[in-house]
Amino acid sequence: MKFCTLGNLALLAGGRDVTPTAPKQRQALALMTLRAGQRVSMPTLIDEIWGSEPPRTATTALQTYVGKIRRIMATATDTSVKQVAAGRLTTDGNAYVLRVADDEWDKPRFEELTRLSRTALEQKDPITAELLLRQALRLWHGQPLGNVPTGRILTPYAQRFAEQHLSARISLVDIFLQMRRVQEAVQEARELVTDHPYNEHVHAQLMRGLYASGRRAAALQVYQQLRARMRDGLGISPSPTINTLHHVLLQDEPDEQFLLMAGTVS
């Protein structure tokens, strides 16, 4: 079986999507998957699904959800519910344990690929770093847990996944800048700026890419747009870091060492 959590929750068997259709079943499956190999207590699952005011029937309903998930797994793998309950999704006291191997789950693979990419970059091998990062990003398929209702416990997981996805995309732009592939850097950075209109890091990347491609006026305009957006939307000013970048780009002869660090001097 394949367990997908980088985007919409998906449970695949033999290439077929057998993801539970009921939202609360998906919610229970998502939490058990994200805590694969660990005991997930019934009170924890009830808290996630119903919050602080669960119905009196919550325990019975949860047991029914887990039973349906087991039946889905059994049917998909041509085994029995008893076998699933004994080996894949077990009961441990008042808790459940879902056993998922790393090669059955996209999350560990993504983390390993991004780690290897960082190592390659540290070893001055941006070509390998890019290949690994592209493999990692291809594992994503939509917004984190986009088809799952997220309660108090799952919400931080979804937020963390979104941050990891953004970090990987930012790293890809950094690689483009380091390799002087400025047009690709600008294209990717523009998409990030659209998706993250208050993120200063992606605006800085776009500014550097534009400047490296000979469009200093456009780079300075990106800063002005960010400053106006932050002032009007958040009531704050840009940080000293991006203000410094703006100041450097205003110079007739920008600080070469600074721009080398930014990956924009050919």
Automatic annotation (TrEMBL):
Ranges for domain OmpR/PhoB-type: 1-100
Matching SMART domains: BTAD
Stated name of the protein: AfsR/SARP family transcriptional regulator
Family: Belongs to the AfsR/DnrI/RedD regulatory family.
Source organism superkingdom: Bacteria
Keywords, alphabetical: DNA-binding, Transcription, Transcription regulation, Two-component regulatory system
Residue ranges of DNA binding: 1-100
Lineage of the organism: Bacteria, Bacillati, Actinomycetota, Actinomycetes, Kitasatosporales
CDD domains assigned: BTAD (cd15831)
InterPro entries linked: AfsR-DnrI-RedD_regulator (IPR051677), BTAD (IPR005158), OmpR/PhoB-type_DNA-bd (IPR001867), Sig_transdc_resp-reg_C-effctor (IPR016032), TPR-like_helical_dom_sf (IPR011990), WH-like_DNA-bd_sf (IPR036388)
Keyword Transcription regulation: yes
